[in-house]
Amino acid sequence: MRHSAAPLPSVGSLWQACRQHSLFWPCVALLGLVVLNGGFNPGFFSLSWRDGHLYGPIIDVFNRAAPLMAVALGMTVVIATRGIDISVGAIVAIAAAVAATLVGGSLVIQDGQQVYVTRTSLPLALLLALAAAALCGLWNGLLVGVGGIQPIIATLILMVAGRGIAQLLTNGQIITIYYAPYFFIGNGYVLGLPFTIYLVAALALLMGWLKHRTALGLFIQASGANPVAARLAGINAPLLIVAVYTFCGFTAGLAGLMISANVKSADGNNAGQLLELDAILAVTLGGTALAGGRFSLRGSLIGALIIQTLTYAIYSTGVPPEVNLVVKAVVVLVVSLVQSPALLARWQSRGAPAA
Amino acid sequence: MSGICKRFPGVQALRDAQLRLYPGEVHVLMGQNGAGKSTLIKVLTGVYPPDAGRIELQRRPVQPASPLAAQQLGIATVYQEVNLCPNLSVTENILAGRLPRRWGGIAWGAAHRQADGVLKALNIPIDGRQLLSDQPVAVQQMVAIARAVSMDAQVLVLDEPTSSLDENETAQIFAVMQRLRDRGVAILFITHFLDQAYAIADRITVMRNGSFVGEYRPLELPRLKLVSLMIGRDFSEADATPPLPMDAAEAQVPVLRVRGLARRGQLHPLDLDVQAGQVLGLAGLLGSGRTETARLLFGADRADGGSLSLEGQARRFGSPRDAMRAGLAYCPEERKTEGIVAELSVRENIALALQVRRGWWRHITRLQQQALAEHWVRELDIKTAGVEGPIAQLSGGNQQKAMLARWLATEPHLLILDEPTRGIDVAAKQEIMDLVLALCRRGLALIFISSEMPEVLRVSHRIAVMRDRRKVAELPNQRLTEADIFRVITASQGEPRQKEAA
Description:
The structure holds 2 protein chains of 2 kinds.
Chain A: H1 2-5, H2 11-20, H3 24-40, E1 48-50, E2 53-55, H4 57-80, H5 88-103, E3 106-110, E4 113-117, H6 122-146, H7 151-169, E5 175-176, H8 180-187, E6 189-190, E7 193-194, H9 195-213, H10 216-225, H11 227-232, H12 237-263, E8 265-266, H13 275-285, H14 297-316, H15 324-339, H16 341-354
Antiparallel strand pairs in A: 1-2, 3-4, 5-8, 6-7
Chain B: E1 26-30, H1 37-44, E2 55-57, E3 60-62, H2 67-73, E4 75-78, H3 90-95, E5 101-102, E6 105-106, H4 108-121, H5 137-150, E7 155-159, H6 167-182, E8 186-190, H7 194-200, E9 203-208, E10 211-216, H8 223-231, H9 237-240, E11 256-263, E12 267-274, E13 279-283, H10 290-298, E14 305-310, E15 313-315, H11 320-326, E16 328-331, H12 335-339, H13 346-358, H14 366-379, H15 396-408, E17 414-418, H16 426-441, E18 445-449, H17 453-459, E19 462-467, E20 470-476, H18 482-491, H19 495-501
């Protein structure tokens, strides 16, 4: 390893290196919120083992953050191409609606007992729900990459229409799901940990692999940072854009499955409401610039955790729910300001003459 | 006498740099890239605070804290890249921030009169009502100067305003500069062009490695002396003279054969042949269709007529991707906006095209990329702290070499270089040209585009002369001189019509 060959760095230089790291401030923010939570609620760090499951507020935060983490990961690559996808909330609703109508759960008598069975085989239902979500993403991608429409407008179309599609699928009603195996996606446990954590981890690993072990990371960052140069270097930008939006749709579909399985229903109107904004926030908090180019998947995961931990802190510290959004906005403002290069430069130039 | 004198024992960028500007004089600042010219200007115009040193304006010490503060002191700057708003009118650009008002609104009549007055005083023949983006770059530069002047600048800093202009346009800018000089403005003019420096300078300051080398009167400073001062070593006459072209076998199948390539509004039908081991120079003034030709060849723009064959095989390029897959490579004219990806590292920039050629699935690992980048850094002598640093930190010449590395890594059959020496220092220009010749000795076919005729003459085996978006002649480079080329350009004025009729 190269590290062992280098002289042992001093604590000071190590601290410098940490501070320079792009994930420094997101990590500080997350740690700060965790400490805050611990301060107000000593039980925050408690973990207990019941029925072979690990319980505790931290596990809960992870479990609840999982859909947002999935969507934020998809949003990250879209933003890296200078794009944005504000239709992910609607795609969540569509995926949930597709899954709910296909699974449903009909009451049948089996061996003299009443049981709910799925209308379509579960794997097929899941596959079709994810495919529907990916198809939505493909539509966005075609509008942006081939149609050349501004991303925010292109995805606004599906943001509005998607809710309508979801409500058409559910006949304008909230569909309750009765088929128990489906709930596993949102509430299941594997080896003591929530299944959602595994889903997100698998997604993150897949994307990390695609970023670092294929050339996609380089291509996305190059065409986000300088589309003209990337085109002249031979990168097929339209295809790349279609691919990232499709993938983003897929991650939103995954989130839709998690959410609907967790609440055991599909609500075309409210499922995934405002999730697009939280996802964009998570990406930004994680240090990926909306201007495109370099992106950080880990940053977005941390960003999503910040948002969920913050929500948890607001509830556990007894802040009235009415001011919830205001508190959220203030925290986000602070984290964003701390990361602002312009502000940093101003701060340093002020500090310099005094030193 | 007013003068600006400044010295500051800085860390690296500037060491005891100094500069004296006199009213009514054009002072040319020369130096290689990285000599500290830009830093010095940025200190003068308040972009960077100096670590030490003094700036005096009319014998009073001043310390501009920001570009705005410098402007208020009467130090105005026009940057290399036009810094205006293309979507606004000329008037708005000139008077932005100072538009005359009446009854809470803008007094447009007065504004246009005021702007027209400024334009007229400088003899710039445009109407203030026109949209800036409709104007050619030269006019935009003049508008930038007009804006600077209209703020009653005592000191006008022009940072390479002519780098993308042709000779006519440069002459127009010079006329404006002379008029200002006669009005007593102190002008600081930065340029890489020796001819321009001698054409306009009253005084020349040379910088090297962040230090002041000397201040000279142009008459006392022969060109070769100036160049050797800039690069810090003697510059022998032999370097400047073109070598005799090698004669390559004309009979072989050309690498590239183009017949009737055209695009409406950009290029009239044109034929080209490029042989392996040969350099085809494209000579012509700015706007003569050189870059358009290159872009059509590479598929960056789509041709609407003509045929193209590469090594005997007919091809059609719908995108740069197709062209690169077929073995073409293109270093575009605008290095900063179309070439480098500033945010990425030197390593990533060099590996980019090869990775694209291999496809996203056949990944070049980080270690392989590193090895590749390090190989080319050594091979082309790219000066960089390391391959992991952002490419934006390299000087222009080294960025250009990195672009060459990007394309050479794909092992192309034909390399198109569009203005590879623009905006880079004299030594780097030499290196690039030596490299071009070395590459063609290894059997690569090249197309070399440059506004600087001596460069084209030096490296090209044959020269296609362009004018008004068409090829007007193709000359074998046998003791051709600049004058020969210019004769062709000017003599061909009547010809196109006859050709069209035929």
